[in-house]
Amino acid sequence: MTTGVDLAGRSHQRTSVLLRRWLAETHTPVAEGRMRLTIGSLRLGADVVYDSPTGAHSFGPIHVLDATGAPVEVAEPALLAAACSADARARALHDAPINAADSGTLLDWLLDALPRRAVDPLALPADLVAVARSVSDGAEARRWLSTHVEGRLLPAIRGWEPDDAAGATAALLTRGALAVIGLLGRRGVVHETDLIADLADRLRAIADAYPDAEWLVRHWLTSPTLTDLAVLNGSGLRYRAASGEIRVRAVPFEVRNPLWSGAPDAPGVPIPELGEGWSLRPVQVLGADGGPDVALVHRWMNNGHVAVNWNQAWPVPRWQDELAGQLAGRHSLPCIVGLGGRDVGYLELYRVQRDKLARCYSHDPHDLGVHVAIGEPDAVGRGVGSSLLRAVAEGLLAVDPDCGRVVAEPDVHNGASVGAFGKAGFGRAAEVGLPNKNSALMVFGRSAPGE
Questions:
Q1: Which of 399, 397, 350 is nearest to 370 (CA)?
Q2: At a CB cut-off of 8 Å and minimum separation 6, what does 64 contact?
Q3: pLDDT per residue over 309-358, tens digit each?
Q4: 3-state class (DSSP) for residue 220
Q5: Which GO terms fall under biological process for this protein (predicted)?
Q6: What whole-number distance in Å separates Cα of residue 412 and Cα of residue 289?
Q7: Contact (Cβ atoms closer than 8 angstroms) between residue 361 and residue 253
Q8: Ranges in the chain annotated CATH 3.40.630.30
Q9: Do 46 and 62 form a contact (C-beta atoms < 8 A)?
Q10: CA distance 112 to 104
C-alpha cells in the first residue's frame, strides 16, 4: 500500500529532479545554503544541503515564494514542470521544434510518468540505478568503479566510432560513471571528489595503455566541459514521437567537467586596435558622480533599443559601481567606442575563462568574448554594429597571438544582433542556456567562417 509519506517523498523527489536539471541546463551557479531563483513567473526558494561537483545536488523542501520572498507553499512537481515548460518554450524561437504543435510538453511526460512512478524524464539505466542504491561504503564504491571501468567502460570506448566524442561522452560518462558517483555522493556513501580522482587515474592508465582509446579519454580529461543530455531546456526538444506516443527526445548540452584539473590563469583583457576610423578606450570613472563616461553609458543603457536586450537600465550610481568594479578586476574591460570622432557605442571585452560562459562550451584559456551595444539611435541599422564587431574580433586576435577565438552570446530572440555577428564573420556554433536566456554561441576564429 502506498502511504501519504511515500507520496510526499516521491513528490519531493520529482521536484528535486526537475530543479537539478533546470539548474544544469541553464548553467545556473549552485552553492550550499539558501537558494532563490525565478523560472518564468514562478519564484522558488530552497536550501541546497549538498552541492555536488557532478550536479547531483540535494535540496531541502522546495517552496513557492511570494513577491516578498516569503514561502507560500511546497512546490509540487506539476507546478514546477509547467513553469519549466513555459519558460523553455518562451526562451526558444516560435518555429523551434519545442514550440511545434505536435511536440508535446514536459507536463505530458509528467502525466504519463505518474502511473509508472517515474521521476526523471531521462532516467539512468536500471543497473546503474541499482548500483547507486546498493553500494554502502567507500571501499565498495571503489571496487564497483574498478569493475565498471575495466568491464564496461573500456570495451565501450574501444568499440565507439571515432570522432563522436559528444555522443560517447553523454552515453558512457556523464550518464554513466559520473552519474553514479553523483548519486553515491548525495547519499553520503563517498566523497565525490575522491571517487572522481580515482576515475581520472584509471582513465589516464587507459589512455597510456590503449592507443585506440586515447582520443576519447584525453578529451574527457582535458576538456573544461562534457556533453550531457538536456530534457527541460533546448530548442530541439520534443516530448512526443510522430505517432503521438510520449517519448522524450533529448538534446545535447555542455556541463562543467569535474575531471578537468583546470587551466593556467590567462592574462588580463588586452586593448585592441580597431583602425578604419574607429577608436576604442577604456571607460573612465571620475569624481563623486562617476564623470562623463559613466553618464554616457547610463544614457545609452536607458535608451529603449538597448534596454530591451541588455536589461540594465540602471541609475547612475549603480552604473558607477558596475564600471568601477569591472575596471578593478581582470574579468572584463568596459570600453567606449567611437566612429569618425564621435562616441557611438559601449563594449565589454572579457576572458571567457572568468565568465559565466565558461560553463557552456569547451573553451580555451585564451578565448576572448565581447558584449556590444550601439548606444546612439541614429547609428543603428546602418551596418555600424557588424563593422564594429569584425574590427573588434580581428583586433583582439591581432593583439593576443595566443587567442584563437572571439565569442559572443546574444539572445536567440535578438535577431538583429545575431545577424550582425553573422555579417561580421562570426559563425553560430551552438545554442546555450544561461540563467536568464538562451543564447546563440557565436564564434570568430582566426580563419573566419566562409573565408
A1: 350
A2: 42, 43, 44, 71, 72, 73, 74, 75, 79
A3: 899 999 999 999 999 999 998 899 999 999 999 999 999 999 999 999 99
A4: helix
A5: siderophore biosynthetic process
A6: 35
A7: no
A8: 278-445
A9: yes
A10: 12
Q: How many angstroms separate the CA atoms of 173 and 170, rounded?
A: 6
Distance (Å, whole) CA 224 – CA 264 = 12
Q: Residue 439 pairs with which residues in a beta bridge?
A: 411, 432
Contact 251, 242 (CB under 8 A): no
Which tens digits make up the pLDDT trace of 228-279? Answer: 999 999 999 999 999 999 999 999 999 999 999 887 888 899 999 998 899 9
Burial of 379 (0-12, 13-18, 19+ CB in 10 A): middle
Query: What grid cell was written down for 336?
Result: 567606449
Any residues with CB less than 8 A from the CB of 16 and at least 6 apart, and which?
A: 58, 59, 62
Closest CA to 426 of 451, 399, 398, 403: 451
Q: Which CATH architecture has domain 278-445?
A: 3-Layer(aba) Sandwich (3.40)
Comparing C-alpha atoms, which of 166, 92, 106, 97 is closest to residue 439? 92
- On whether the CB atoms of residues 441 and 426 are closer than 8 A, the answer is no
Output the nine-digit C-alpha cell for 334: 568596459
Instruction: Give the 3-state secondary structure of residue 100.
Output: coil
Q: Which three cell numbers stand for residue 139?
A: 571501499
